[in-house]
Amino acid sequence: MKHRIVLDLSELPQHGWDSASPTWWGTLAFELIEGTGFALAIAVYLYLYSLAPAWPLDAPPPDLGPGTWLTAVLLISVIPNVLVSKWAREEKVGRVRIGMIVMSVFGIAPLVLRAYEFPAMHISWDTNAYGSVVWILLGLHTTHIITDLGDTLVLGALMFTRHGHNRRRLGDVMDNALYWNFVVVTWLAIYGCIYWIPRL
Amino acid sequence: MAGIVRRTANPLLRLLLIAAATMALPACEREERTLRLAPPVASALDGVRLMPIGIGGAPPEVYSALEKPFASNAYDLSQGKRLYNWMGCPQCHGDGQGRSGPPLLDGWWQYGPDVVSVFVTIRDGRPGGMPSFRDKLTTEQIWQLTGYIQTLGAYSAKTAAPSRDDGPQTRPAENRAPAAALFDKFPEIR
Amino acid sequence: MRQGSRAAASVLPALLCAGCAGAQSAFDTGGAQALGLARLMIFIMAVCAAVWLAVMAALAFALWRRRQEATEPLAIDARRQRRMSLVVGGSVAATVVIIGLFTVTSFWVTRSLWAGDRDAVKIDMRGYQWWWQVTYRDGNQAFTTANEIHVPVGRLVRIRLTADDVIHSFWVPSLTGKQDLIPGRTNEVSFVAERPGVYRGQCAEFCGLQHARMAMQVIAQSPQDYDAWRQSQLAPAAKPSDPEQVFGEQVFLSKPCAACHTVRGTSATAQLGPDLTHVASRSTIAAGVLETTRGSLAAWIADPQTIKPGNNMPMVALSPDELNAISAYMASLK
Amino acid sequence: MTSEAIPLDVRDRAIDDDTLRARLAKTWATPRGLWGALTTVDHKIIARRYLVTAFIFLALGGILAVLMRLQLARPESRVLGPDFYNQIFTMHGSNMMFLFAVPVMEAMGVYLVPLMVGTRNIAFPRLNAFSYWMYLAGGITLWLSFALNMGPDVGWFAYVPLSGPEYGAGKRADFWAQMITFTEVAALAVAVEIVVTVFKQRAPGMSLNRIPLFVWSMLVTSFLVIMAMPAIMIASSTLIMDRLVGTHFYNPAEGGDVLLWQHLFWFFGHPEVYIIFLPAVGMVSSMVPTFARRPIFGYLPLVLALVATGILAFGLWVHHMFVTGLPRVGESFFTASSMSIAVPAGIQIFCWIATLWDGKPVFKTPLLFVLAFLFTFIIGGMTGVMVASVPFDTQVHDTYFVVAHFHYVLIGGAVFPLMGAVYYWFPKFTGRLMSERLGRWVVGLVFVGFNLTFFPMHILGFEGMPRRVYTYQHDVPWAALNLFVSLSSIVLTAGFLLFFIDAIRSARRGVAAGDNPWGAATLEWATASPPPPYNFAHIPVVDDANPLWSAPETLTVAGGLRVDRRELVVTSVAEARPEARESSPANSIWPLLTALATTVMLIWSIFSPWAVVWGSIPIAIALTGWFWPKGTPEDEA
Lengths: 200, 190, 334, 637
What we know:
The structure holds four protein chains of four kinds. By secondary structure, chain A is mainly alpha-helical. Chain A has helices at residues 22-51, 65-89, 93-120, 129-159, 167-196; one strand at 2-8. Chain A contains five helices and one strand, in the order βααααα. In chain A, helix 1 (22-51) packs antiparallel against helix 4, helix 1 runs parallel beside helix 5 and helix 2 runs antiparallel to helix 3. The longest helix of chain A is centred in the last third of the chain and has 31 residues, at 129-159. Chain A is elongated and about 70 Å long. Chain C is 41% helix and 18% strand. By secondary structure, chain C is an alpha+beta fold. The N and C termini of chain C lie far apart (60 Å). Chain C is elongated. The chains are: A mainly alpha, B mainly alpha, C alpha+beta, D mainly alpha.
C-alpha cells in the first residue's frame, strides 16, 4: 500500500508522564491485579469469620500495638512519598535523591514493626484457619512492602548515577510513589480487617 | 530404559538419558502406587530375621531387592498414617507424643530405630502392653505402618512424608519433622 | 458440512430414544421428584430445540439469499439496516422472555423438590472411599448397613448426607437429583419412590481411585415388605449352622477381617469397613461391583485389589480351606 | 536531551522509503542465532512461539483424550488402570485449559493486537518475553511431572480434600498447583501488556468506536484475566500451604472450609471460560465481515455484549456448586444470572447472522469454520442454559451431559473459531496461504467428528453416566454409546491431524499470500505478510473503523518518528490523540534469566517453604538487571 503522510509527530516529547506513560498504566494494571488479590484474601477472612462459632478462633484478639504503630508509620510515609513524587515532577534530582533515602527508611521501618506484628496475633499459622488467614494477610502485605522497598532502593541508587537526570527515570520515581500509596491504602483495609473485626 | 541407553550411539544423548533416568527413578519410586502386592512377595516380606536380643536384625532379601519399599514412597507412607489412626495406635501413643504408651515422635525408641525392630514390634507386640497386630494387619500393611512410624520419629523430614490430617491439630505434620521442633536431640531415657 | 449435519440428523433421533430407559436414567422415573425434574427437562429442551432450529433456519436462509459471491465490500443501505435492527432487537427480546420463563419454572420446580414434611423415613448416609454407610434412625432402634437402601413405596424418605473423607455425591437419577456429601457439612436429600423396584445410583463427585466403582441400590418395596426387611436387619447375625460356616466364623474373627468389619452378635465390632451383619441379604458387594453369591464373595476376599484396585480392603493371606469357609460364612449372613 | 539535539537524518521523513525500511529493520531486528532467539522481544516472534507451543500442548492433550476414549470404549476395560486414568483426565483438563486454550488465545492477541491497532510492538515487550518463558517452564513442569509418574490425579479443579494434605499423597497436587502459578503469571503479564497496548498504543485517530472487534474482545478478556486469575493464585497457594506448612484453610476441623476452595476456584473458573470464549467471538467478528463482504452489523451492541459478558462472568460461579447444599434462594439468583449470559451471546449471534444476511458470503475455509461454530456453539449455549437451571442441573451435574456441554462450548465455541482464525491469519503469520482444498476436508472431518463424538454424551449423561469414571460396569446400558463415541473420535482425530499436516505443509510450501489475501478491512492487512520487525514503516492514521475498505489504495500515516531507536506513538485512551513518541525496549536476556530464577524458586517451593526466601534473591538480582538502564537510545527521554 502507498503511504500518505497526514500527521507530523516530530514535535511530540520522547516520553510522557502519568496517563501519557505506558508504565503508569502498567503500574495501575498491576495494582488492579494485586488489589483483587487483597480483596479476595479479605473475602476469605470474612468467609471463614462467617462460618466460625466464635471469632477469633481459640485466640484473643490481636494486640493493637505493633499494627497500629505500623499503620501510623505508613500514614506518615505518605507525606515524603507525595513530596518525592512532586520533586520528581519538578525534576529536582537533588531533592529526589534525599527523598528516596527517606523512603527507603520508611520502607524498612514497617518491616521491623511487622516482625513484632506476627507474635501480636497470638496465634500461629498452623493452629487453625484463623491463624492461617491472618498470617497470609500479613504475609501477602509484607511481600508488597519488600517489593516496593527493593524498587525504592534500586531506583534510589539509580538517582545517584548519570541515569538520574532523565525524565524517564523521574517518571519511574513517580510510578514507584504511586505504588507505595497503593501499599499504604491496601494496608488500611487489611489493618481494619485483622485488628478491628475481632473486636466487633 | 537400559535398552534405549545402549542403543543410543551419540554419547551426549546417552549421557543425557542416563542423567534423566537417575533423576527420574527416585521420583518414580517415591510416587509409584503399588495397589496390589503379589502374594509371594507379600509373604516373603514377612520373613524378617530378628536378633536374639529382640532389637535390630535383617530384613528379608526381597525387601532389599525391592530397594526398601515403604520407606520413602508417598502413597505407602500416607496409607501407613491412615492405618496408625484406624488401628487405634493413638489410644496409647497419642499423636506420637505418647500417652499410656511411649512417645514415638522423639525417635528415641526402646527397641531402636531399625526397620526390623519396628516391624517386629508391630507384628508380634512387645512386653509391657504393646499388642500384636499379626491378626489385624496384613504384612504389607505392617510394612506401611513401619515406614510411617519411621517418618514420625525422623528429625529431618522426607519429602515423601505425609502432610497434616484434616482433623484437630496437635503438632506439626510429619513432613515438617515435628520431632525436631518438639524434642531435644537426646531426650531423657524413659 | 451440509453432509455432516444430515448424517448427524439421522443418528440423533435414534440416540435420543436410548436416553429414555435404563437402570440409572433420569427419564426412567420412579417417583414424584424425578418425574417433576424429567418434565422440566423435557420442557426446557423442547423450547431450546425449537429456538435452535429457528436460528439455524435463519442462518441457512441468510446464506442462501445472495449466493453470487462479491469481492468488493458492499455499501450499507440505511433502510435495510433499520429493518435488521428491528429483527435483531426482537430476537433479543424473545431471548429475554425465554430465559425469564426458564428461571421462573426452575425456581418453581426447585421448591416442589423440597416440599412435604410428612412422616418420613429418616436415614443417615455417610460417604467413604469408596462405599456408602447407611444408618436407619427411624423409630427407636437404629441399625447400620451399607451400599443398599430399602424404602417403603409412597413414603417420603429423608436422607442426611455426610462424608468421612472426601466429597462424594448421592445420586439415584430415577428418584431425584444429586446432592453432595461434604466433609464438615451436612446436606439433605429427600424423595418418594412411587413404583416398587430397584433403582441404581452412583457416586457423582470424583472421589479418587475407585470413584467409578461406588454404586448403590435403592430398593423400593411395599410397606409390608419393608417392615419385614427392617425387622430382619434389626436382628443380630445368624449363628453359623454347619461346621464349615462355624470354621468360617472363626477365621473371620481371628484374621484381619474383624479389625475393620462389624458382624453384630459376634466380637467383631470395628467400623472401618461396611457392616457385614446381613451382608448376604444385600444384592451386591463392594459397592455394586459384584452380585452377592458365595463365589463372588470368595473372589472378592481372595483378591480385592484386582477387582477394585486401590480400595481399602487388603489382600489377606488365606489358605484355600479358610477362604472356602469364610465365604460360606459370609454367604450365610442373610 | 531534547529533540533538537538529534540529527535530522534519523527522522523517518528525511529519508527515502528504502533507506527508511532498512534503518527500521536494523533498529528493530532480532539478531540471528541462539542469542537472538533467547533475547528477542518481538511480539510476532514470541506470539509465534506461544502458538506453536500451545498447539503442541493441544496435540499432547489430544493424545490423552484418545487414550481415555480407548479405555472407555468397552465396559470393564483394563487398558488403563484407575491411577493412570485419573492422571490422564487431570492432565487432559489442566493441559487443555491452562496450557492450550488460554495461552493460544493470548498468543493470538499478542500477535494481532499490536498489528490491528497499528503499532510497532506490544507494550512491555520484555514482560512479554518473560511471559512466554514462564509459560514454557510451567508446561514443561507439568508434563515432566506426568512423565515421572508424579502427574496430578485430582482433576483439573483439584477439589479439596481429595487434593488436600491428607488424601493427596505425594507431590502430585503440588505440581498441579504450581503449574497454575506459572501459567497465571504468564497470563497476567500478557493481560497487562494487552490492556496497555490497547489503551495507549492505538494508531492516531483510532478512537474507541474504531477499535477492531477482536481488539475489543482481547481487551475485555485481559480485564477478565486480571480480575479472575488472582482467585486461582490464592486458591493454589493456600492449597500448597495447607499441604506443605500445615495451614488450615480447607480443614473443617480447625475452622477451615471445604467449599471455600470451590468458591475461589469457580470465581476464577467461570470467568476462565469467557477468557477462552471472548477472543474466539472476537475472531468470528473479524472473519464474518471479511467473508460477508460487508462491515459488521451492530458494532456497538457487539462491543456492549462483550463488556456485558465480561461483567456477568463474575456473577455466575455458584452455578458450578448447585448440588453442594447452598441456600436455595441464593442458588435461584445464580440461575437468573447464569441464564442472563444468554442475552449478550444472543446479541452477538443475531448480529453475525444479520451481517451474513445483508452480505454476499464468500465460502472460504474460515467462513466454513464460523458456520460450524454457529451450529455447534448454539447447541452448547442451549445446554448451558439448561445447566443454569438448578433442578435441571441436579440431574446432569458431573455427568457426561456436562462433558458434552463444555466441549460444545469450548471446542465448538472456541476451537472452531480458532481453527478458522488460523486459516484466516496464517498468511499474516507466515506469508503463505493454507490449502483451501485440505481446509474444507478439515472443516468437514472436525465438524462431523466432533458432533458424532460429543452429542451422544448428552444422552449418556441422562442415562446416569458420571464424569471422571475410569470404567463402567456391564449392568449399566452405556456400552453401545460409548463405543460409538470412541469410534467417532477417530474421525475427529483425523480432522485435527489433517489440520496439523496442512499447517506444517503450508508453512513451507503454501501459496504466497501477499499483504491482504482476503481483501479484509483492518490494519494488520496494511503491512507485508509476514510483517517486518517494525510492523509498519509509518504509523497508520485512522479515520474509519474499516480503514482498508474506506481507502483501499493509500494508507494515511504519520511521520516524524526516530529511526535510530525503537520508537512508537503513545495516544490518548478515548480519542487516540498522539501524546508522545515513546521508546520501546530493545532485546534483552534478562527476561529469560528472571524466568529461570522464578522457575527455580517455584519448583523448589513445592519441597520447602524456605525456597520463597532464598529463591527470591536471584529473582531480585535478575529484575534489577532487567530494569537497570543500559544507556541505549531507548533510555532517552
